[in-house]
Every structure is written in structure tokens, then in C-alpha cells.
Amino acid sequence: MPAREGTYGLLAEFETPSDLVRAAQRAHADGWRRMDCYTPYPVEEAAEAIGFHRNKVPLITLVGALIGLAAMFSLETWISVLAYPLNIGGRPTYSWPAFIIPAYEWTILWAGLSACFGMLALNGLPSLYHPLFNAPNFRNGALTDKFFLCLEAMDPKFDLSETKAYLQTLEPTSVVEVDY
Amino acid sequence: MATKEIQPVEPERGAGVDPATGEYRVLGQGQTFKSVTEKISRIVLTPNTPLGWFALFGLGGAVATFLLVAVTWLFLQGVGIWAITQPVAWGFAIINFVWWIGIGHAGTLISAILLLFKQGWRNSINRFAEAMTIFAVVCAGMFPLIHVGRPWLGYWLFPLPFTMNVWPQFRSPLLWDVFAVSTYATISVVFWYMGMIPDFGTFRDRAESKAAQYFYGLLSLGWRGSARHWMRYETASLLLSGLATPLVLSVHTVISFDFAVAVLPGWHTTIFPPYFVAGAIYSGFAMVLTLAIPLRKFYHLEALVTERHIDNMGKVMLATGFIVAYGYGMEAFMAWYSASHWEAFMFWNRMFGPMGWSYWVLITCNLAIPLTTLWVRKLRTNVAFMFALSLVVNVGMWFERFVIVVTSLYRDFLPSSWGTYRATKWDYMTYIGTLGLFTALFLLFVRFLPMIPMNEIRLMLPGAKITPKATAKAGD
Questions:
Q1: Residue A75's domain spans which residues?
Q2: How many interface pairs between A and B have CB atoms less than 8 angstroms apart?
Q3: Does the beta-carbon distance from A42 to B233 stay under 8 Å?
Q4: Tens digit of pLDDT for each residue in B224-275?
Q5: ipTM of this predicted structure
Q6: What is the C-alpha to C-alpha distance for residues B281 and B272, in angstroms, rounded to an integer?
Q7: Is the pTM for the entire model greater than 0.90?
Q8: Contact yes or no for A155/A35 (Cβ under 8 A)
């Protein structure tokens, strides 16, 4: 982890999603990698522009689903066959068709919980503090009607004055420096 | 596209109609990111709660005390205070359970199935439909729990390692119910909360009071709208919809197994699962209308919940209403075609027996009134009519469950064990109490949480269109 002091990055504000997407595409084409877009609603093109195409949420969901399925089906089998076998008119104890329903429900339960919590974990949430909240204009519209592009100081190309000048060429409404 | 062929309607239909398609607009004209955000967040972030809210909340809370009194007395006295006895051993508790769960299903249908079908119009109504689902499941879940007689032993339903080594019986539909309903409640809450996270972020940034900033700040989990976050979020939403769709279909199917697996005329039928699911969606859409119509009026949300929504919900009700009608028809047909004396008697008794009136209430409320009038577009977009109709269907669907439960049970195989069913005041108080609880919970939701998903509405606005790079000139 880098020292949590100094500059987090430079934040450029845009009025429309199209301006943001074009700026992000340009910055990505110019070799920027440690960057992110901030939008008030999902803008798929912005994620594409910064080179974020795939995520691991589906994989986590699949694993969760399989765990739920296996856990419930084996629990049912173990209870009904070994732990507490009930002889009801000589019917088989391993009555798997009846076990399908709880196993099916648990598949969905575990998959759904994995999707939600997996998404939050991959996003690093909850994280109630973030340097961007220090930017004077960020909380004034990032989740209402403004669009932001942040070039982060972690990027090897980052240089405070040069990057600021570079961002100005992308025609933002404003560029501000964000501190940790 | 079929909608293209519809001729533009006459101008008297008003400004809500888009001349290009002849359909009502999904959103009113002239909305921007800012106006939508302001309209929705003002409802929650205002320091002035409307007086009408307090009046309704007071009323809902007062009615909910019936539930408190009835349940307290129930715990002291046992289920004997209800009208359940032999042969009608299942009474109001199971009727209300199925009715409430059914109502909940429309919320999941709107939020999950219509999302998968890319029905953009659902965005305005999905959040409060989901809230309706959760509160309906809360009301529903209470009934089996208090019906078990000794609710403090309710945890016996779960496969927990007890010291006495007793385990649940996994071949029983009643146990399947436990898993179906608990999964449904959990996934509904997760889906609902996840949908609200970005909107809580908006509230956090717009709140003026310190308390609101902390409250919504915590709930938002620090959401900041990163493009990477949004993509994972969208993937998770889509996956949850894909999971909630088979879930919602399975829940009412499993509930119908409670009946269908029993070897009892009137219950033992294979039409039950699809017919229960369709009935659930039918009653749920009626409840969404019952809630949405006063809400949009009271909070002036006509630009966000438009005639298009009311029209479309009417169409869904028409379709599911006909599936329900098919179910009724098939029950009658099988009573005759099975050539079973017991089936035929049960059905004759259901229609013309001492409780036959309830069957005709059901036919009137569920089939005769809605399925004749919902064809007419003028009526489907008439707000007052749709509100009245939604109440009629809610009543009808309650009677459907009454008919299934009571009229199948009160004439047993032997005339010596015939009985009747007359609900006691405790039955009524419990039921009416849950209506109060539901109202109170829903009002709290409307006051403190974002009832329309702002982030999803923004996506539908014309400003969200990305213009291609070719047309992008400097300074545009």
C-alpha cells in the first residue's frame, strides 16, 4: 500500500456522459491505466473506455450456487438416510425427488447472496471514506447529474502539472486536485 | 414492431401520448437528471412531512394494534381462539398466508422478470413494488409462525442439531415451504437493498442535516459511482434477476404443493402450481395499483408513474386473469371428467352448497368484472376506475383462497364429519391487523427510502444517450 498522503489524483468534471466517454477513451488510448470514471448511473461505455470489460461476479455466483446445492442436498441425504431415518410404510429413505425442492431453493439463496456480497467485496465496499469525497465538486453532483474522470497519482505517467495540462486538453468543465 | 402499426390516437387523449408510437409515454416530457433527482429526493429529504402522511401512518399503526392484541391473546390461549377445528383445520391463517405471499409476487415479477425482458417502463414502479413484496412477505410469514401453536419452538422447522436428535422431515411440502419462503424473503431483501445503494449515495450527498448524512452515508456503504463498480453492480443485478425469476415461480408452486400433495378433492390437482403462480401475479399487480395510484397523486409523481404504467399493469392483469380463469375452468372440467364421485360432489358443493356464495363472490370479483372491462383502453387508463378495480381483484383473490381452503374441507367424505367454518373476531383482528402493519411499514418506506430508483430513471432519460465519436466536435 502506498503512503496515504499527498495527492490521490486529478479529477476532471464533465457535463454530459458523451463528453466523459470521449475523454476516457482518449486518456486510455494515450496510455493511462490507473484511472476511473464516476457517473450517476451505469454508463457501460465509460467502463469499456477505461478498459474494464469483464468481472468476476458471475464466477462467484456460480461457485455460491454449487455450494448451496451441494450443502442442502447432502444435508437432506445425511439426515434422511443416516441421522434420522423414518420408516414410513417401507418407503425408501433416500427419496431424492423430494430433496430437490429445498436443494433448489438453497442453490438460489447461496447464488443470490454470493452475487450481492461478491459484488460488494470486489468493489471494496463498504468503505465509508474515500479520497474523492474530499474533492469540493464531487459530492455536489457525482450521483446526480455530473460526470467525472479521475487520473490517479498511482499511474507511472502521473505528474501533477503535466497531467493537469493534459486533462485540460480533454475540455472538462473543471479540473481539481484530490488529496488523500 | 407491432407498436409501430398502431395509428396515432386522437388528440383528446392528451399530452401523455407519444405521437410516434401512439402509446402513452413512459416518462413525462422535459425531465432531466437534475429534475428527476430533485423530485424523488425531495420526498425523503424534506424536513416537512406532509400532514396526510401522519394521518395515514396513525391510522395504519392503530389498525396494527389489532394484530398485537390478537397475537398476544393467541399466545396466552392457543389456537383454540380461532375458528379452526375439525373438519376445517386450516382457516384464516393459511388463507391470509397465501394471499399475502401472492401479493408479494408481483414485486419480484416487476423487478426481475420484466428486467430480463428489457421492459424499461418497469423502472418507475419496481422499487415500491419490491418494498410491497417485502412487507407482504413479512405479513405472510407471520401466519404459519403463529399457526404452529407454540411459536417459540418455530426453530424446530430448521435442520438444527438438537440435543434430542430430532430432525425435520424433508419429504413434507410444509418443510419445503420453510425453505421457499425464507429464501424468497432473503433474496427479496438483498435485491431491494442492493438496488437502493446508489440512491442512498445520492441522498448522502444531498442531505442537509447531519443525521441524514450519517444515516444515508452508512446505508450507501460508501457508494461513489465508479464505472468499475457500476459494471459489477449491473452484473450482480442481472444475475439476481435471473435467480429471482425461477425463485418466484417456485415459491407459489411450493405453496400450491401444500394443497396439491394432499389427497383431498378440491386440492389434489395438477393445475394448482401454474394457477397459483398466475393468481399470485394477478393479485400482486392489483396491489401495486392500489398503492401506486394514491402515491402518484399524493406526491405528484404523474410524470414518473404515467398512464403507460397503469395501462401496462392492466394488460398484465388481463393476461394473468385469463390464466386464472383457465384454472377455474379446468377445476370444473376435471370434477366432471375424472368421474370421481367425491370430486363432483365437492365441486357442486363449492358452487351451490351452504358456502356457495363465496364462490360467486370470487367469480364476480376475479373474472366477471376485470376480464370484461380490462379490454378497454379508456378504462385501463382511467385512474379512478383502475383503483376501484384493483380493490375488487384483491377481494376476489382473497376469496379464491377462502374457497380453496374452506369449501374443500367443510364437507368431509362422511356426512357424519361434516362441519362448517365461521371465523371468530380473533381471526378478523389478526387479518385486519396485518393490513394495518403493511400500511404502516409501507408509509415508513415512502418517507425514509427512495421509492423510485433514481439511477434507473436517469438511464431512461434522453440525456443519457451517448453520441458517437464521429459527431463529436470540439466544444459541443
A1: 57-122
A2: 205
A3: yes
A4: 888 889 999 999 999 998 999 899 889 989 999 988 988 888 888 888 999 8
A5: 0.92
A6: 14
A7: no
A8: yes
